């Protein structure tokens, strides 16, 4: 038990390790405590199966350590994270990569984050890229691969290799791609059963229209989770919104996240997706746009929600940087969790939401809006004094009402995030919230440093 708590057994744990070579230091430390621990550690293959390797800081003897750890890992699945910069003049990274590729049939998690050094000449970059391509071409079938993540500036020539890796991984469930690394080899995809088990897809920095064409492929019909981040929008994209004749239904998609820094880009993205997909089983939707002052995207968001047929299936909705959210509330009969974050200092977004949700006080009677709401999370940039009073009144009207809605509990948790110094504990609204908290309502304050 101690061994599994101390040593990283997943690549995410290894990434938090500060050792510049690899994450094996905890395993070595465990083996050095005493003879008994040494024997147990060396007889625990999973302790030696996680490799977080920075090519920029490999020592000359690194290959011997890597080979020893691969031997100790026996037949355990391997988690491999390769990052740092490549130099054709340093042979050690080539030896390390060659050793790892020999064991690629055991890869369970492969994260490739190798970067091109900005100080490298074009000639040196080309030489490093050619060596990398040759080594990566030696990867054959990947029967154990569960998760594949590529975020690299070594783009030229890598995309076809990535496509082949994807298609040679019959059990691949998660794929993360950045930039132009999207494998668009349709012929290769058609010849292979690859991606048939894919459940999670995350892409960033890819042109919107290219991605839309790519997503129409049959390989992605069984997706359960989709993350779109920083899709590139071109001026002509707003004029070529796809027609709904090419509509694709993702029956199993349960989680969708869309992050666009620019509000205008978010609007175009939502319009594209509204015309091309339906997600009748979608449960969690996360929409985030980051500009403090951006265009109102409520209309394309409303169209997206209704066109994708997800309004009745949604149980969790996270919105950041979206104004006039109250206009959307009539759409969600089964929503349990609503999270809204302000990214601007003006407007009545949160106040309007609170007013619309108050039972008997909203425009539509309150109770008809989000009737199954259990958790409301609000992140305010600069709340006015009336916000706390309104929040307390709304919470009181929805909590301890002595009834349930279709068997679902009423409001049970309220979370409020504001900057330090913006909560006045002497106000009537704050005291009212504290009274509800003392009576049993789960009230949570998160204070941001200013």
UniProtKB/TrEMBL annotation:
Gene3D superfamilies hit by this protein: Ribonuclease Inhibitor (3.80.10.10)
InterPro entries named in the record: LRR_dom_sf
Domain of life of the native organism: Eukaryota
Name of the featured protein: F-box domain-containing protein
Species assigned in the record: Tetrapyrgos nigripes
């Amino acid at each position: 038990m101690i061994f599994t708590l101390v040593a990283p057994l997943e690549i995410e744990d290894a990434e938090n390790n500060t050792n510049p070579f690899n994450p094996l230091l905890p395993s070595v430390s465990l083996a050095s405590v005493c003879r008994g621990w040494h024997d147990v550690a060396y007889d625990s293959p999973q302790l030696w199966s996680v490799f977080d390797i920075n090519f920029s800081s490999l020592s000359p003897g690194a290959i011997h350590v890597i080979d020893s750890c691969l031997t100790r890992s026996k037949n355990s699945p391997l988690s491999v994270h390769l990052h740092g910069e490549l130099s054709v003049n340093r042979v050690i990274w080539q030896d390390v990569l060659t050793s790892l590729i020999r064991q690629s049939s055991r890869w369970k998690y492969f994260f490739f984050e190798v970067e091109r050094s900005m100080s490298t000449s074009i000639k040196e970059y080309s030489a490093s890229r050619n060596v990398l391509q040759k080594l990566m071409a030696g990867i054959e079938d990947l029967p154990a691969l569960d998760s594949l993540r590529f975020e690299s500036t070594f783009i030229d020539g890598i995309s076809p290799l990535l496509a082949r890796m994807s298609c040679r991984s019959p059990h691949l469930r998660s794929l993360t791609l950045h930039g132009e690394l999207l494998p668009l080899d349709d012929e290769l995809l058609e010849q292979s059963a690859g991606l048939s088990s894919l459940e999670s897809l995350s892409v960033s920095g890819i042109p919107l229209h290219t991605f839309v064409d790519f997503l129409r492929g049959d390989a992605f019909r069984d997706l359960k989770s989709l993350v779109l981040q920083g899709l590139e929008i071109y001026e002509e994209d707003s004029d070529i919104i796809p027609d709904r004749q090419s509509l694709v239904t993702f029956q199993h998609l349960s989680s969708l996240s869309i992050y666009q820094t620019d509000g205008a880009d978010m609007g175009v993205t939502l319009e594209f997706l509204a015309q091309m997909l339906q997600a009748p089983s979608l449960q969690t939707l996360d929409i985030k746009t980051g500009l403090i002052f951006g265009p109102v995207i409520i209309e394309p968001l409303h169209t997206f929600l209704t066109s994708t047929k997800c309004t009745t299936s949604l149980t969790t909705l996270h919105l950041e940087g979206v104004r006039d959210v109250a206009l959307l509330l009539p759409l969600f009969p089964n929503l349990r969790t609503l999270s809204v974050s302000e990214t601007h200092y003006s407007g009545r977004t949160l106040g309007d939401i609170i007013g619309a949700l108050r039972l008997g006080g909203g425009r539509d009677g309150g109770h008809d809006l989000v009737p199954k709401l259990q958790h409301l999370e609000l992140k305010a940039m600069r709340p006015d004094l009336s916000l706390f009073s309104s929040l307390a009144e709304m919470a009181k009207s929805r909590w301890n009402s002595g009834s349930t809605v279709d068997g679902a509990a009423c409001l049970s948790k309220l979370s409020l995030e504001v900057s330090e110094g913006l909560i006045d504990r002497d106000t009537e609204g704050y005291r009212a919230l504290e009274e509800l908290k003392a009576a049993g309502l789960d009230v949570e304050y998160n204070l941001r440093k200013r």
